[in-house]
């Protein structure tokens, strides 16, 4: 049985099940969900807790034995099984099937896993667990949802932002500084609760208190490019540079998006349906909604010039600038400035040479 995270509280109020599976990479939310299950288990008498962590050479028979035995003191027990890799192996897969089939009213089992790909979610061992058990998939809080998430967390501690545009500005300010780092976001929100009393928080109070703890994912750059969010694009590139991300990887992510857009742009021009082109180019999820507006904004010329710039940047980041065969004007001396120029070709829909003449990048 699949259960949404926001339905967990109501589910636990109706009674505890014998098996829970919590999986996903958003560690704060996964930890909070597990804490609620643990607290409910303790409240109804499952006071004996045993934790197993699957590592190389793990003894699966010990796990099965624990789930089938009674505590020496007669207490009901909570057994936690942590599989950090998400890959139990052949022996583990069979043990998990046995675990799922067990029916011991004196045992509640909590299995935690990282984010699983679609193939793993269809595996025999996982479907065996989720059949009799309750599965909670912990999805990440996307950038667009982050201001609302922050607002909800503030309300839990009796605080709120000012109404109207000033409040929206405050929530966006917080979101910009905690993006990609939900645990730190939680800590910054708690800090606001310690610094200021319950009630309305002004933008000035938030501005003075919230640190920049954002952590950027190179594979989220395409969202900022496709939406034309220049400010976010600038912050992400600055943040990735500051964190020491490899320029080669960042350039690859940018170029991959430019190539995808160009293939789809040419396909649409030749009369192919957009839906077919999206499938062929493996575009789905949030990107699927963003591609259409980006295609109407950016020209084929801009994309072709962006790829030309990318070729020169590729030689630059590999230390081959000035080698024979380089065509076109030299990119900026700092490859990160060149990558911003490349991304702006999509974000603003202008050829790279014109995008370079755009207003100076906003600083964080």
Automatic annotation (TrEMBL):
GO cellular component: DNA polymerase III complex
Positions of the DNA polymerase III delta N-terminal domain: 20-130
Keywords (A to Z) from UniProt: DNA replication, DNA-directed DNA polymerase, Nucleotidyltransferase, Transferase
Main enzyme class: transferase
GO biological process: DNA-templated DNA replication
Alphabetized GO MF terms: DNA binding; DNA-directed DNA polymerase activity
EC number(s) recorded for this UniProt protein: 2.7.7.7
Gene3D superfamilies given in the database record: 1.10.8.60, 1.20.272.10, P-loop containing nucleotide triphosphate hydrolases
UniProt keyword annotation of Transferase present: yes
Catalytic reaction annotation: DNA(n) + a 2'-deoxyribonucleoside 5'-triphosphate = DNA(n+1) + diphosphate
Family: Belongs to the DNA polymerase HolA subunit family.
Record PANTHER family: DNA POLYMERASE III SUBUNIT DELTA
Protein name per Swiss-Prot or TrEMBL: DNA polymerase III subunit delta
